[in-house]
Design goal:
The chain has 329 residues and is mostly helical. Helices cover 63% and strands 2% of the residues. The chain has twelve helices and four strands, in the order H-H-H-H-H-H-H-H-H-H-H-H-E-E-E-E. The structure holds fe (ii) ion (2 copies).
Length: 329
């Protein structure tokens, strides 16, 4: 089935942007070859001074996740098989094109963080090193459809995360970072469209299996790509980063619900007709957005929660998250 989708994949290769028309990290960084490079760099660093620790932690976690791109390329290789590494069939072309576009995200965020001097880059690099060594286990090796459904979910989640960080950065007056995050979010949108359309086609050609795979992905509670990160000191680094992400409102349970709602609509789940067990699964999936919204609502009703502070090596051991002032939903 995956192979038979080649024609469909080929039709959607235009969702990759030609190299001569796409931005590169250098376009959003101070020009270090200019005569007045030191003033440009000084202004760039000055602009980043307004970022609070919690946004720095979110930004580092996002960047580390992007930098572990080799893990995701390996995982997609299971689906878009390219045994020679230079094949010219549509799946291979997509996979390499996607990887090349994604590669700019980690590069740009890495350069931003390095040049602003706001974080401990060595600790960040150690985290990237660990994450790539630790790998990525989303659990969809059992069926290739699950990988494509997961990718649809993940590209949208990433788009929301970068988009919300752009808004928070702009609110603080850090327009350089806002622009960078908006640009990355726009790439994620194109990638999301690709995977979502491929899965739509799977729903047309093989509806029941696709439905079951969608349920399998959600049942597992979508595992985040950076979930195996550590800095070698904090074994719960990912949870601590995730806590800051939720508290700052960059990505919350509500966003999780909104991603499922969006995918359900994009795949016309409500209007498809299934019988027997599949109809029950369809119901289950259609109810998921409301279920997560309800959970988010319950969380909101809870009283302010005192949390132990988490020290992050990324920001020289400073702590973030002493008090949870009610979830930021
Ligand atoms: Fe990305
Ligand atoms: Fe992405």
């Amino acid at each position: 089935m995956i192979e038979s989708l080649e024609g469909h994949v080929a039709e959607h290769l235009s969702l990759l942007t030609p190299v001569d028309q796409i931005w590169q990290p250098t376009d959003y960084l101070p020009d270090l070859t200019a005569e007045d490079w030191s003033e440009r760099l000084r202004d760039f660093r000055e602009s980043a001074r307004c970022l609070p620790d919690e946004l720095l932690v979110v930004l580092v976690g996002n960047m580390v996740t992007e930098e572990a791109l080799p893990n995701y390329a390996v995982s997609l290789e299971h689906i878009a098989k390219d045994p020679t590494g230079a094949g010219d069939d549509p799946w291979a072309t997509w996979l390499r094109g996607w990887t090349a576009e994604e590669n700019r995200h980690g590069d740009l965020l890495n350069a931003y963080l390095r040049l602003t001097g706001r974080v401990d880059m060595r600790a960040v690099e150690v985290t990237i090193h660990h994450l790539i060594r630790n790998g990525f286990a989303p659990g969809h090796e059992t069926h290739p459809y699950e990988g494509l459904i997961y990718a649809s979910f993940q590209e949208r989640a990433t788009r929301i995360t970068h988009g919300n960080l752009a808004k928070k950065a702009a609110d603080r007056g850090e327009e350089n970072l806002a622009k960078i995050c908006r640009k990355i979010a726009a790439d994620e949108t194109r990638h999301e469209l690709f995977y979502t359309r491929i899965v739509s086609e799977l729903f047309e050609r093989d509806p029941e299996t696709t439905l079951m795979c969608y349920r399998a992905v959600l049942k597992r509670v979508v595992i985040m790509p950076g979930s195996r990160m550590t800095d070698g000191r904090d074994p719960d680094l990912f949870e601590h980063y995730g806590d800051v992400v939720q508290r700052t409102g960059i990505y919350t349970s509500r966003d999780y619900a909104s991603v499922i709602r969006h995918l359900n609509n994009a795949w016309g789940l409500k209007d498809r007709s299934f019988g027997g067990k599949a109809a029950k699964v369809q119901d289950y999936l259609c109810n998921q957005p409301e279920r997560y919204d309800r959970l988010a609502e319950e969380r909101r009703g809870r009283p302010t929660e005192e949390l132990p502070s988490h020290a992050f090596s990324w920001i020289h051991g400073r702590s973030v998250g002493e008090v949870r002032r009610g979830p930021a939903l």
